[in-house]
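pasting for ref
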Amino acid sequence: MDNSSATKTISTTPSFLARGSGAILDFLFPIHCLGCQIIMPTSSPTPYLCLGCLEKIKPTSQLQCLFCSSLNPTGKTCPVCRETHALDYLWPAANYDDPFLKRALWAYKYKFVSSLHSALSLLLVRFLQSQHKEEFLKTNQENLVIIPVPLHPRRLRWRSYNQSALLAEELSRVFQLELIDQVLARPKRRRPQTAI
């Protein structure tokens, strides 16, 4: 065996093993879509939520004041509610009552399915595109940063990932916005939202 064939064999082995291990994992531990329960390959761009079910989650079409539900195109807190609330505006990407979205968020936060960040990030991107916010993000790129909400260190060790940071990284990449991590801290450990 000459050196070139040995090099070729060595360089192709990792991809062969990767493909083989993916097939073995698919067989032994199949991933089912949280929506329709079809078996999905581990190589799917949106694991745990097939593209068909992802399409069924409709992005928010009309923005409104969070507090009084008055419609407005920017999602700003209306002037009346602004007198008693400090929140400037809120852009909810989809309706939390959607059964597929509810299942996906539950699995993402409480069942340790970190790979759902790709499907959920895609939902956020689709929402921002449907609201024509790309131009706003591009125009204000130098003045905008993405800051993920931190977890308490104990919760981060328990979950092993910060779900907010994974989404923030993806949005930062897609819209080319600066990501600033480690700016906020969560010194107090609070009960999980499910226990409140």
